[in-house]
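Could you join me in thinking about how sequence relates to backbone shape in a protein? Would you write everything just below, so we can both look at the same thing?
***
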Amino acid sequence: MKPEQPKRKEVLKSFLEKFDITTLNPMQTEARKAIYAGNDVAVLSPTGSGKTLAFLLPLIERLDPNISEVQALVLVPSRELAMQIEQVARKLGSGFKINAVYGGRSGALDKADLKHRPALLIGTPGRIADRFRRDDMDLDRIKTLVLDEFDKSLEVGFEREMSEIVRSLGAVQQRVLTSATDAVAIPKFLGLHDPITIDYLNQHRPQLTVKTIAAPAGKQLDTLRSTVDALSGQPGIIFCNFKESLHEVSDFLFDHAIEHECFYGGLEQIDRERALVKFRNGTCQLLLATDLAARGLDIPEIKFIIHFELPYHSNEFTHRNGRTARMNAEGAAYVLHTEGKRLPDFIKSSQPEPQSLDQLHAAKIPPADAWSTLYITAGRQDKVSKGDIAGMFFKTGGLNKNELGIIELQQNCSFVAVKRTIAHRIIERTNNQRLKKKKVRVTLVR
């Protein structure tokens, strides 16, 4: 491999500065070089290891500013992952037009966004296939196809759409696949040619401790409550297998005044988005979820996982646990199991540590600062930046810097975290005020 050109080094440095990092990790470095060289590549690396940047950097570095059609396509298994990759790509600040399309989003909004073609298009297979059928796109300009978490797309039933898309992209010169597992064979219809496999699955060393908490028969919910109470003050996820049991747990938590957000496939898209926003910005410390949240979501700094219901297979157990102890950070996974009931072999093989509730309470962490999330009726389509929003909240709202949390920009709205004690005062001062040229509504996200 030839030494990297000085210009490319400067471009990479400017991109990484946007994420407050100085160097890529070994997996990202190896993947970026292989992708930049034009090879077909399969990147196998655990959740949280940075696969998104690994493929986005060389994709964007190779885009041609003189081409006004889509040049690279990224297929993903879920709406949330499409939105996340779009946000990461935009944060790089490359100057190229980037858009994401996915189910649950207005087709009219897709049409408006794609009227002027993005250089990089991201989307779920179902929606991408639909846009290819409806829109008169020049697909011969798409030279690179990325299938992020390709095995998950197959698992959730997108094989027909993926095959249709691959067949329609006759000019593709490079295919890049990513996965957090090596359990699924690469389908022939994807058409990979002598791919370079970059496998870091066994080189990741998470500082994860798996612990078991015994629950007396019929007392699983009470045991969960005691566990959550002991772990309060740090962000975590409770996993259930089905939405019916998730609803049962959610009702129990609400009855006992334990704040949480729910995340599962049956939720409306707007409710799923708001649950993740509140979890990311610290407004909510506890996410109650099905395996929809087991991988593909950018939710940093999760300190614990609770398996209220154990998954049926070891892969799901691994993916759930991968939400914590990411990138060599520490984390713990707690397995709630009924006393006397046999644990699955994949749990026993990991030799989990027994944990008593007394031990948990003895190590209880002080509660974190309480935050609220505000909703603003302006987003990227209004040419609004995070700096514009922060300026309004400082100047008009009278906030101090330590009272303003994470700001998330979306296409037609924004979400802002503020200290809970001042949320209503900020709403009174900023609601119906002008943000740039637009008068905006500011409301509390409940």
Summary: The first helix runs from residue 6 to 17. The chain has three domains: 6-199, 207-362, 371-444. Residues 90 and 203 are 30 Å apart (CA to CA). The mean pLDDT is 87.
